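Next comes a single protein record:
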Amino acid sequence: MANQYWKKKVVLITGGSSGIGLAAAKQLALAGAHVWLAARRLELLEAALKEVQAAKSDPSQNCGVVTADVSDSQQAARIVETVTKSSGAPDVIINSAGISQPGYVQDLSSEVFERLMQVNYLGTVYVTGAALPAMIKRGSGHIINLSSIAGYMGVFGYSAYGATKYAVAGYSEVLRAEMKLRGIRVSVAFPPDTDTAQLTYEIPFKPEELKALEGNTKPLSADEVAHSILKQAEKGHFMIFPGTDARLFYLLTSKLPKSLVLFILDQMAASGKKTKKV
């Protein structure tokens, strides 16, 4: 990225040990940012940090890792505190930490719904809340939250996951309105299926109807999604759509009558149900 927007900025990425978070971290390191990664598993963070260090454009860039579970408000606050002591208060927060568990709604336990909400939504809220005081005092900053296509369109098989991503999108919209008055940018990204370890994990749990909805669509790479998110974020976009599918689906679901959208989705899902019976 030739844009100077990220140069020398302190960027904190949750879920930074793999997937979109790690891909963004490496691109930001190349762009000259001080990159910090937060995740639960130290061994993955240490491996990710080596990749980030190798991507740095300047040896003076201060990069590091923090082990923490963002679903715990105290641990989330500790992440921001650790980064602030080492590199200064974060200029940018990328809330990329997230988990998923597809399945029929009647088969998903209440614990699944609770855990996904704690990580995907409250993790975003906790880290953002810990970083905001310094951003407000400084009068600048950028918060980038990761939602999903399932955060603006109810997707068969993603009742627990989709609810959390709708919550992230709604939170981001209110955050944008309030923080704009304080000079702080807010963006929310709606990635499509992305080729990550999380997506691989989901495959055995996906209902046939969900597979029918997905069709033969090829997932984007984490690098592609991260590049698109960062490119649109540096331009100041609030709603970010990596790839043409994410933007197209949003336009269709927002412009077409809801009844028509639901009818089309129902027909596609029904084709998967027929296939399952064969």
